Amino acid sequence: MDGKASYVRLVSGAFALLLSYAAAPAYAACQRADVVVYGGTPGGIAAAIQAARLKKSVILLEPTLHVGGMLSSGLTKTDASPRKNVYGGIATEFLNKAKAHYGTPDPIRIYFESKWAESTFNAMLTSAKVKVELQQRVLKATRVSKALTEITMLSGKAYCGTVFVDASYEGDLTLKSGAETIVGRESRAKYGESAAGVQKLKRPEVEGKAILVDPYVIAGNRNSGLLPGVIDVGQKPLGSADTSMMAFNYRLCVTEEAGNRIPFTRPADYDPLRYETTARFLQALKAAGKGVDAAHFLGRGMTVNGKLDVNSTRYFSTNVWHIGYDYTTGTEAKREEIRAKVRNHITGLMWFAQTDPRVPANVRQYMTKFGYCADEFKDNGGIPYQMYVRQARRLVGQFVLTQNNLAKKTTYNDTIGLGFYPMDEHGMIRTILSGFIADESRESIGVGPYQIPYRAMLPKTSQVTNLIVPVALSASHAAFTSVRVEPTFMVLGQAAGAAAALAPGGRVSEVNVNKLRSTLSAAGQILKF
Prior knowledge:
Elements: H1 2-23, E1 31-38, H2 42-53, E2 58-62, H3 89-102, H4 114-127, E3 131-134, E4 138-144, E5 147-153, E6 158-166, H5 172-177, E7 181-182, H6 188-191, E8 201-202, E9 205-206, E10 209-210, E11 252-255, E12 261-263, H7 276-287, H8 295-298, E13 307-310, H9 324-329, H10 332-355, H11 361-367, E14 371-373, E15 394-395, H12 403-408, E16 415-419, E17 429-433, E18 436-440, E19 450-453, E20 467-468, H13 477-483, H14 486-502, H15 513-522
Helix pairs in contact: 2-14, 3-14, 10-11, 14-15
């Protein structure tokens, strides 16, 4: 009986194994290219185009159905430098196309439509002969010694390359490659940065005077629980490291053009409690004699063709706080759950703003004039495709760019481009201070044009030898709050593409820096302000 039982178990096990093979994705032969770029963000697109223009075969892998990242998902006020001669190369090529298309008179602040951005990026990729593969989300990475050889996708497809570029916002390929990464904020002491770590809590103010907003579901009753969006951490030690991250949102595109407007509607899961903090802020402003207008909800982001790029405002925000760490470290299922939460918060906020009696009547009436743009994101109900992941994990590489480098304008022998944007940190923590709501976030810090070294995109040579990371690059949290804008990502992406094309045998640390810099200069990149 024992022998028979063993035989039955053996046969059953073999049958189960065959079934598991049948159920698993059928992994195709590895598609090969000289350069494989993961992430169809503006940085990834610039990397792919530059490598292709240097006669390399390139595959661009995008996890979603649409390339363009935030620029084709609502962020159409581009955060471009307020000074000339900061961005060049492919970033300026794209912005000049927008200027020509829309006849924009402003030579610096150039706005456009998301649908135009996606179409233009696709045309630029086609012209460069970049092979684009959509719906390709990385599952695992394979290394031989310290070199990436193959990445396998959730779809079952596999891609092999000589050099890999991780241009995703989340840095997923970087993590799976085995390179060192960080999620969250370093301490103030880590790199000697004044803007690092936990900041001082501050209550909301009106004309310099703090206003008191009760944080409890039943005002004054601690036992009733905290309102949505408020956490009970209080003032943490100033300058200490933590896993807090900037708030995320979607950059809505809205219009009041009657022929192109999808009216705001009540979401199926609408819960007024989600907006109780907003209602109480409104009441506090009214008590302080401060008026409220629709800009508190929609901002003042007029772009082109009657469209607004809706970003967060301070107290009536499309932002959702305290989700960044769970999103960054979570599974794809967890990430989609968080995306849905953010979408529901924003669509519900639009409904709240035009229907809740605690919103001033003039604002409610004004809000009814607006709706989502029917000609944008047509396959997504007018909602942008890409959630605004302001930061996720970051590489800890051969050089860590810090606040001090930005502020002191450090120069480098391997400078590959410039950055220019204030160190702009969106909401980090909303909590309780002495019984009332207080926010932990710092003011923007101007840093002016600064150089970025090639080494900030490279993993340590002891970890990975053929990966370049232009988006989730090696920067402290404080420095990243400046680097994180799309034109800078395009500058970094173009440098990554050039380096990938020039890397001998794929060894990115052995790129001839003088040759890299001359190649970038010839392509229009600006290396010195």
